[in-house]
Amino acid sequence: MLYLKSCPRCAGDINADSDMYGMFLKCLQCGFSKDISPEMARNLFGEQDATPEAATGRPDQQVA
Ligand SMILES: [Zn+2]
Predict the structure, then answer these.
(1) CA of 60 to the centre of ligand 1 (A)
(2) Which of 10, 34, 43, 51 could pair with 30 in a Cys bridge, judged by C-beta atoms 3.0 to 4.6 Å apart?
(3) For the stretch 8-46, what's the b/e string if a residue is b when 16 or more beta carbons lie within 10 angstroms of its beta carbon?
(4) Cα–Cα distance, 17 to 27 (Å, whole number)
(5) Which residues contact 22 (CB under 8 A, 6 or more apart)?
(6) Ligand 1 center to residue 55 CA distance, Å?
């Protein structure tokens, strides 16, 4: 996954990737990198799995 202009150091493009240690962010321009926890990854990337809470409480229900 690629996040344009998201680098806190150079405002470059951040690539989110994972290896055997977990997920990390890396800037394509300056090489800035940061490890992130699975919880952070979910918050940042909004992964669709294992979030049953997200399916409830939607405000788009109409009351006739
Ligand atoms: Zn950068």
Answers:
(1) 39
(2) 10
(3) eeeebebebeeeeeebebebeeeeeeeebeeeebbeeee
(4) 11
(5) 35, 36, 37, 38
(6) 35
If you measure from the C-alpha of residue 6 to the centroid of ligand 1, how many angstroms do you get, rounded to a whole number?
A: 8
Q: What is the pLDDT of residues 7-57, one digit of tens each?
A: 999 999 999 888 888 889 999 999 999 998 888 878 876 755 555 555 555
> How many residues are recorded in the chain?
64
Residue 11 to residue 14: CA distance in whole angstroms: 9
Environment of ion ligand 1 (residues, CB < 5 A): 7, 9-10, 12, 27, 29-30, 32
Measured in angstroms, how far is the CA atom of residue 15 from the centroid of ligand 1? 10
**Dihedral over Cα of 20, 21, 25, 27: its sign:** negative
